[in-house]
Amino acid sequence: MTKHLPNILTILRVALIPVMILFFYLPFEWSRYMACWVFVAASITDFLDGYFARKHQTFSKFGAFLDPVADKLTVTTALIILLQDDPSILMMIAIAVIIGREITISALREWMAELGERATVNVAMVGKIKTVFQMTAIGFLLYQSDLWFIPVYPIGQILLYLAAGLTLYSMYVYIKAAVPMMKEENI
Fold first, then answer.
1. pLDDT, tens digit, 9 for 90 and up, residues 123-145
2. How far, in Å, CA of 140 to CA of 161, rounded?
3. CA–CA dist 37, 78 (Å, integer)
4. Interior/surface letters 133-151, b for 16+ CB within 10 angstroms, e for the rest
5. Could you tell me which of 158, 162, 166 has the C-alpha nearest to residue 141?
6. Confidence at residue 156, expressed as pLDDT on a 0 to 100 scale
7. How many CB atoms are closer than 10 A to CB 8?
């Protein structure tokens, strides 16, 4: 069981996506809170699957494939439903930047792996910081309501815009690391 726990957690993260969507669109006062908590639970499984894989040294090719896919599906789905809920130009730009970066870096990693240079574009610290801002922003935006005196939604918007800025910077870092290989390929 321990050997398969990381993959089970990753599959659970994918299975939580339709649950998050369902809660988001239910016509009840508490539905947004539940969508937020489902997203938080999915985010926790992301941390836990990596933790258990490292702790028990249970890495698999399937897990290496599915984990980033599950992350991108969860985040992209949450961003799309948030954009549908708030179709402002700033929200659209921030979400387009975040999703565009995810597609670009995924393609870059795939290409670098083809060249045998996958380690060149490993996760950088700025990418981890971006992820913290992004996940916190999404959680706040899903939650939406003020919490006591804290204006949750406006804070979520600011965090999302900061995450978009960090997204651009992290994309620059990854592409800069790949430039020497691009030059070798005459690109």
1. 678 888 999 999 999 999 999 99
2. 13
3. 12
4. bbbbbbbbbbbbeeeeeee
5. 158
6. 98
7. 14
Q: How far apart are CA 2 and CA 114, in angstroms?
A: 31
Reference 169, options 138, 126, 110; nearest CA is 126
- Amino acid at position 160, single letter: L
| pTM score, whole prediction | 0.90
Q: With a cut of 70, list the residues of the chain below it in pLDDT.
A: 1-2, 117-123, 185-187
Six token digits for residue 171: 């994309």
Radius of gyration of the chain (CA): 18
pLDDT at 107: 86
Q: Please give, one letter per residue, the 3-state secondary structure of the chain.
A: CCCCHHHHHHHHHHHHHHHHHHHHHCCCCCHHHHHHHHHHHHHHHHHHHHHHHHHCCCCCHHHHHHHHHHHHHHHHHHHHHHHHHCCCHHHHHHHHHHHHHHHHHHHHHHHHHHCCCHHHHCCCHHHHHHHHHHHHHHHHHHHCCCECCECHHHHHHHHHHHHHHHHHHHHHHHHHHHHHHHHHCCC
